[in-house]
């Protein structure tokens, strides 16, 4: 009983951590963007305020059953993936379900959320949503290819499909995988640009053109839930990247302060990685969908292929 | 009265004359008498066949002149099997044509039946004769009656078809005579068994030249390429029961003659390759031409040529299994082709447009006939579980045993072509919109019975071929066993 | 009499009986067909046992029918799916013409499939294969369109090419190995790729055409789309698996011996399967007719299965067998959904209808579950199949680039998956579909049962693994242990599906509760016309659903891939052949004198060359 209680507590803590960090990162993104555009920008905790505002709206419009359920799907996707990614290396706290799932499962689970979102958007009846979904899915085919190539190359190189093992390797040899297979990193980070949907790949929800794309018809508590899920998901993606390429976190032992230090390390590392899409997004124009897809099938895919060859022959 | 093989020929001949006389007294005699006679033929078969299978063969001399000076009739398991088949199918065709209204632009029924009877008599004669010149005589009888029957509808098309048939048939007669002439001068005999005995002593060039004449002449009769140009016209212009008889009886006789001469009488090397090659060419050209046809009866005629080609290939392969398959195929072809012509002619009868377009959606008016046509089509392509599958399968296995992979691939590719035009027709019958003007002619009960009987044969033998495989094995053995043929007759 | 024979008899006599009873009373036809299949299925699952055998002689050949674990596995698919499809047919085919013909041919097809799977000698295999083919051909041409003939003929010609290739192989197996028995031929090495390589290749050709492997897949989209949907469920779900059955059989020698010739063949086949998967997917996502979309999708899914078979490894074959069952389940359900939509709303053209979710909620539920399974998203069963394939390709057979190709196809599959759901069920409603009602219960029950299979295999794939493992034993693999609820690969990484499933359900329930209850009074439910349209008001009867050129950007991006049109290549070949034939037949000029000249010329040739021909 104590074990189960412990696990559930750990899961809740992880979720809250992800939520908080994700929201803050979103706020930081807005702040950085504003500053580069020579504005003051909203405060860093703006996302929390927005969330409270959304929850407090007087009416929430529900567009049918799928529209009602869609935000839940996103939460499910985000939290499930969260459970399976090791937060800290020496997993005593925050262990969650890390031993029980592998990379292939994660790949597919990440799509689960988009699918739910797409269905909810579809039911709303707004053509903008549908167009947004079509663009989003097409773009997904684009960026998934280099991502998978990179992951497969890592799987081959280290003969494992578990993130745990990748982190263990980095922990034991002290060498970050970004150096062991740099092309995998390049392919991954480029595909992450697509996943985050910041410029130049923001045509999915192109605000000035498409009235927010898939989330056009989500409002009130639904939009709040979507935002929550999105933030968690942001954190998840970043942690994945950090775990795989930057040695993960939690290298300070298992004591209380060790855990705290590990978390701090995690936040710092993820933030640094997060800056890459943010900065690229600041200075990029927008790609059309087919340009985006073609972009992903060119250099990122080439990097991915090199990564695989690197893994096979080196 | 002792039943002997000569009854096979005598009965239909007598019937022909009887019809001429009796129809003066009784109008319907012309229709009834052939049925009685053909039924009698079946009875003869049932009586004689067990004897044949037991003794190996029956040889009957005519008019007391012993072989080899007199004419003898030989009933081997092979020829006996064919005569039984011909009798049964002939009876079925008669039953089908019982109420056949000869269109009034033609002649009277009695002439039709007379000619038909004589054609059947002649064909049976070709099959059971043991004498070369006798064979020539019977081929002539078949020829003349066939020419007349082709032109029976006194129209332009019939006349043209008949003329072509006459032209080519005459060439056949000439070459056949020349072949017989050479053989007679070389061996001094006209009896097949005796010639076979003396053949090794004939000089090679003479032998081969004579063989070539026979191959050409009998090839014309057996519808081999390139001598089969007459066939499409003849089959399509003749009245429908006659087309069925052409397919089931006349071509069987022609092939039998060719095979008997090449296998038993002559002993030349290279005949087998010749048969395989020319058989394949026949099949290929015929099936390709069939695809392009727009007239149902012509299409069926070309298909007949193709099947005959396959039969020749099978005989050419020459092993026991191959000959077995060939005889099986001959039987199947006779049944199935007769059935196709029978059902096909009802289609034509029922629509004013004689082309394939006239078949659109006809199954609504003639559901039973359509089903029979479809079953027959499936059977001839070789779909299991119909009988056509087994014959093709045996032939393919025999070819496989001889390692003839390209032949097998060739045959199967041609089967695909066959499949295309038959299934096209079936689709037309069932699934196209019915647009053509039509007059209603439902099949009469006798036609239905006849066709059902043949269809039943296809299905039953398809599911359980063991019923006839025993007979077929004996027939194949008897064909390949030249020595006992000679010995039995010349004892 | 032997159980297997009795089942075949039930099916064939049932077919004939159903055909004739249609003339008596239309309503009885469907019932009679359904009763037949119920008796047959019940009889089989009740009485048939592993190891049943039936030997008899037919026309000089000895035939053998038997039931081993491998056959048993496929019979689940054949009889199970057929039973559900016939139940579905009762309502689907109501009021249509020529029911006797339809049900008769349907039952014959089932008999053919059953026969194929229980045959232990090649002749029976071929006979039942042909019966299956022409019976399904009859159903392909059932629908009354004018150029349905083309689709039917395409199907028949390709099937015939395959079948006759098989026949050639069978004849030569007899010639070289002296036997027609499959088991004996196997043990004598008939399928090894080292000697007489054309034998297994021809067999693979025959089976592969049935499994719609590129480049012989062109018959599939048309045939699947134009046949009545109740039969297509079986056509795509079970009949194509006969090809899979055969391919697995042919490769079984290779699985054990792993010789070089087999390796090359399997690699080629694997890549053909991969290309099939990609091309099928990208053609699926540009379709506007839901039926054609599903048809192309079927071709793509079969590609996955073929890839799995070709890897020759434990996980790969398990993936293939597992996907075979699952594909039957979810594709059968999807075709039934399309049929339900067609029956209730009149068309499946996605540019003409949309927004059916409110009117046909159960149908939508089935579609949703099946699509999620198709896409391979956890926690439903499709994920297990995808997992197995990737693991097989990456961990066991080192076929990395093929894994990427499969993944590309799988990702692109999300596109048409979404399109199917969106096109038919989501978006704004069409005026004409105002009065559409939910599908009748007899159609819903089979669909829901198939969805249930998709769901349950998501958490407990062991239910399928165990029979499949027995099947693999029959093929010659060693005994392996498969967990009921978790997946593991050879590197020791596991995925625990039950935990995932439980977790997802818990979160869903929690989230649903929170989202629904919180602010309940403040939630207003609106229809699909009530959208934020920036000041533009919609007119009466206008439908703003985005349906046309749904994936145009992707089409533009992947334009080079779309240039490869296999269908056109085959059509051109066919037309060229037909023209050639039309020209060739002029050999028969119709002129009597010409024929006479032929005769005399031939005589002359023979006389001149007689020494060469007859020596």
Anisotropy-based shape of chain A: globular
The number of distinct helices of chain A, counting runs of at least 4 residues, comes to: 13
Structural class of chain B: mainly alpha
Task: Return the structural class of chain A.
Answer: mainly alpha
Largest sheet of chain B: 2 strands, antiparallel
Instruction: Sketch the topology of chain B as an H/E string, one letter per element.
Output: HHEEHHHHHHHHHHHHHHHHH
SSE run of chain A = HHEHHHHHHHHHHH
Low-pLDDT runs of 5+ residues of chain B are: none
- State the separation between the terminal residues of chain A, measured CA to CA: 48 Å
Largest sheet of chain A: none
| Proportion in β-strands of chain B | under 5%
- Cα-based radius of gyration of chain A, to the nearest Å: 19 Å
Folded structure, characterized:
The complex is a heterotrimer of chains A (314), B (491) and C (615). Chain A is mostly helical and 314 residues long. Helix content of chain A is 74%, strand content 1%. Chain A has one domain (2-313). Chain A has helices at 2-36, 46-55, 64-84, 103-124, 127-158, 163-173, 177-180, 182-196, 207-210, 220-245, 256-283, 289-297, 299-313, and one strand spanning 60-62. The longest helix of chain A is centred in the first third of the chain and has 35 residues, at 2-36. Chain A is globular. The N and C termini of chain A lie far apart (48 Å). Chain B is an all-alpha fold. Chain B has 19 helices and 2 strands. Chain B has helices at residues 6-25, 29-55, 77-96, 109-128, 132-150, 156-187, 192-198, 204-221, 230-237, 240-265, 271-291, 296-317, 320-350, 367-381, 387-401, 405-431, 445-463, 466-480, 482-490; strands spanning 58-61, 72-75. In chain B, strands 1-2 form a two-stranded antiparallel ribbon. Chain B is globular and about 65 Å long. The two termini of chain B are 26 Å apart. By secondary structure, chain C is mainly alpha-helical. Helix content of chain C is 70%, strand content 3%. In chain C, the strands form 2 sheets. A two-stranded antiparallel ribbon of chain C has the order 1-2. A two-stranded antiparallel ribbon of chain C has the order 3-4. The longest helix of chain C has 32 residues, at 314-345. Chain C is globular. The mean pLDDT of chain C is 83. The chains are: A mainly alpha (314), B mainly alpha (491), C mainly alpha (615). Chains in contact: A-C, B-C. Chains A and C meet through β1, α3, α4, α5 and α10 of A and α14, α15, α16, β4 and α19 of C.
